[in-house]
Amino acid sequence: MDNSFIIDNLLQQQESVRLEFKEKPNKAMIARVITSFINTQGGDLIIGIKDDKTINGVENAEKVHNDIKKFLIEEIKPNAPISVQLIQYKRKEIILISVWEGAKKPYQYKGKIFTRENDVTKISNQENLNYLIKERKEADFHWERRTVLGAKISDLDISEIEKTKNEYELYKQRSGFEDVEDFLIQMGLIKNGNLTNACVVLFAKNPARYIPQSRIRLTVYPSNKTGDKFINDRIFDNNLFKNITDILNFIDITFGRSIVVEGVLRKEKYNYPILALREGLLNAMVHRDYNSVNGFLQISIFNNRTEISNYGGLPEGITIRDLKTEHNSILRNSDIAQMCFIRKYIEMLGSGTLRMIDDCKRNGFNSPYWVDKEDITTVTFPKLAIKSEEDNEGVNEGVNEGVKSIVVEGESEGVNEELNILFKAVGNNPGLKAPAIANLIDKSLSSTERYIRKLKNVGMIEYRGVSKKGGYYVVKSI
């Protein structure tokens, strides 16, 4: 994905406690700055741009990118999520390094502890060091690091842990874990022989057995408001990684995809902003307040919008306005967030909401907006909706989810609707002749034949067999 919009956003800002520009890729200097970011508020370092924002780029950028990434991951201790991205910007290659504020302070490089004061990186003094140690002790008593009474290794999905361990070993190549249990111990997900809450949410086969509020509900409503009636209502009560996969599959089936025809070319297009919805779901799962037994995560699909709501308001210091710019990402559940980063569900640190807005704009969807009220954060995707029961009247009952919708470029919306009805009728009833299709979709024979010709011309359907015994079929390559 083109992430140049992130650079556009950062270039509008001045160097600060969370942002610095570097013209040259000096690894030692970069490590000091990144360590100071992790010890303070997190932040972004851009390499290849001067202090005055002149864009010079980086020579041999791919090699430099790989060297810096390996160097930072190995040299900064303890381990922390570090995102190193190579970005094409105005025909130059630059490197963006992003980090969250760390949860295992103090972090150090070459035995020295660095912190950030305004736009300056400094070696930590004793007062700052005492504060960092105090923060570390407080973090160790956070909900996700408390242990779960009665939970055992046998309650965990070992295959998901193996996937995460393997990804971590690719991320930090000299890790060296004896087995999955050793991995969980080194990641802080097992403490004193007991599984932590974060470990159960991430990897348990049935986390709701120990943490009932970890469940996620997805409801599809026939109208624009909640009520007793619903089209579908599902509870997802698996571990976080299984839930992500299952929910995204459900959303994909619900909204579906279209085949867009441009001349003789055909391509598949999602009927929803896949990256934005994925980011919105992950934000809710990572930032939700699991500590409260009343905590929830609700996905609601209406006939005029889609909402993702989670218990847990925006962290102190973050406002709704901040979500529309590059901002400090204050993690409510840092251990859960780190595992999502390792699994590559989180690609760039601290830019999720920006990526959501950009994805919607790029793909022709309305931009999402956020509401933070009474400890509930809700992101709404306007007009991202299913058709109501009334809208679906007149469409043949035989249409199933296996036949995709199509969009023929150059045709009006009304014609495309008629082409879709015919296309799906053929897909669900292969081998019919024009008169039978006309009867099925309740159209005149002349209109049906005209729509058949359009679909044949763009290669969506074809006639098979001899004149009297053949019929129409969807082209198999679609």
What does this structure look like?
- By secondary structure, the protein is an alpha+beta fold.
- 35% of the residues lie in helices and 21% in strands.
- It is built from 14 helices and 21 strands.
- The chain has helices at 4-11, 27-39, 61-75, 126-139, 158-171, 180-186, 197-203, 240-255, 274-287, 334-342, 352-362, 413-428, 434-441, 445-457; strands spanning 19-22, 43-47, 76-77, 82-89, 92-99, 108-109, 114-117, 120-123, 190-191, 194-195, 216-220, 232-236, 257-262, 265-270, 297-301, 305-311, 369-373, 376-382, 405-408, 461-464, 471-474.
- The protein has a 6-stranded mixed sheet, with helices on one face.
- Helix 2 (27-39) links the parallel strand 1 and strand 2 (43-47).
- It is globular and about 90 Å long.
Keywords:
single chain; 478 residues; alpha+beta; 6-stranded mixed sheet; 4-stranded mixed sheet; 14 helices; 35% helix; globular
TL;DR of this structure?
The protein is α+β, with helices and mostly antiparallel strands. 35% of the residues lie in helices and 21% in strands. It has 14 helices and 21 strands.
